[in-house]
Amino acid sequence: MDESGLTKRPVAVVTDSATALPERLALQAHLHIARMEITIGGKTYQDGPLGLSTEQFAQLKDRQAVPKTSAPKPAAWMEQFRAAHDEADSIFCVTLAARLSAAYDAARSASELALTELPGVTIRVFDSDTAAGAEGLVALAAAKKAAEGASLDAVESEAGRVAGEVRLLAYLDTLEYVWRSGRVPRVAVWATSLFDVKPVMEWYRGRVGSVARPRSRKKAAERILAEMERDIGRKRAHVIVMHADAPDDASELRRQIEARFDCAELHVTPFAAFMAAHTGPGLAGAAYWAE
Predict the structure, then answer these.
(1) Which DSSP letter does residue 194 get?
(2) How many CA within 13 A on the CB side of residue 87?
């Protein structure tokens, strides 16, 4: 019970904007979001739920305007920890993979600062070991458990279970933006462009890997659906369809998923600034796990 006499929940969940969750969905799940930052053409923007503007996407497409991104600073995490403390006795924080970002370390630093500012509040920081919609599914699973009144240990256990099962597959227009992050060799970018390949990539356990190199976006989508068929089968699926300035691709992928699978939840989300800077415009894909 807080100073106003209202009873608090045992756990509130905080995460970062790399999840790219729609604002409505984040609010419904009672998630508190620490915002990433992106600098394009010398101007810094706060990552947001509404996606990049047309002007910002045009800047991303300019190969000369290399965007720079940064994780939420400890102060940004603290702001969300304070808000979460208003509604819960303890806080569970889900971050972008530590091997991909400084978000985890910044959240840990903020949790140490909170020992003084928020005495008696337990803050547990959890490395999702994944990104984008996959991280979003981990955060949503934790938030659902928290909403049921579960303990901090139970919320962490659920997040760990989903993090161990979730998979993220997406196809890209080019590997140029992934190459800029240092995660693929330059020769891979050259080969993709030369043969007009639409690479299907997988983000798993903090690493980026190649699944297939089809010659069209349609074939790339078919490969993602085939991978989902193999993994999900007749089980209940939790799915987030993602896109970066590719709403028609995302809409068709969502339609196919809804027709083929028994979905406990199925969301569509556009990438905002932070994730789009790392993938480039034209990405479409899905993150999922099965019960």
Answers:
(1) H
(2) 16
Which of 190, 166, 201, 186 is closest to 279 using CA atoms? 201
Q: CA 201, CA 169: separation in Å to the nearest integer?
A: 6
State the pairing for strand pair 167-171/262-270: unpaired
User: Of 280, 282, 276, 221, which Cα lies nearest the Cα of 253?
Assistant: 221
Q: Give the tokens for residue 156.
A: 């962490």
Q: 32 and 83 in contact (C-beta within 8 Å)?
A: yes
> Rounded to whole angstroms, how far apart are CA atoms 39 and 20?
17
Q: pLDDT tens across 149-208, in order?
A: 999 999 999 999 999 999 999 998 776 666 565 555 443 444 455 446 778 888 766 566
DSSP 150-191: --HHHHHHHHHHHHTT-EEEEE-S-SHHHHHTTSS-HHHHHH
Note the pLDDT of residue 94. Answer: 98
Amino acid in position 88:
A
Rg (CA), the chain: 19
In 3D, which of 29, 155, 30 has the Cα closest to residue 90?
Answer: 155
Distance from C-alpha of 240 to C-alpha of 219, rounded to nearest angstrom: 20
Domains within the chain, CATH numbers bracketed = 9-36+71-163 (3.40.50.10170), 167-290 (3.30.1180.10)
22: phi > 0 → left, psi -120 to 50 → alpha, else beta; which? beta
Residue 181: count of CB within 10 angstroms of its CB: 13
Strand pairing class (200-204; 167-171): antiparallel
CA distance 261 to 239: 10
59 Cβ neighbours under 8 A, 6+ residues apart: 40, 41, 65, 67
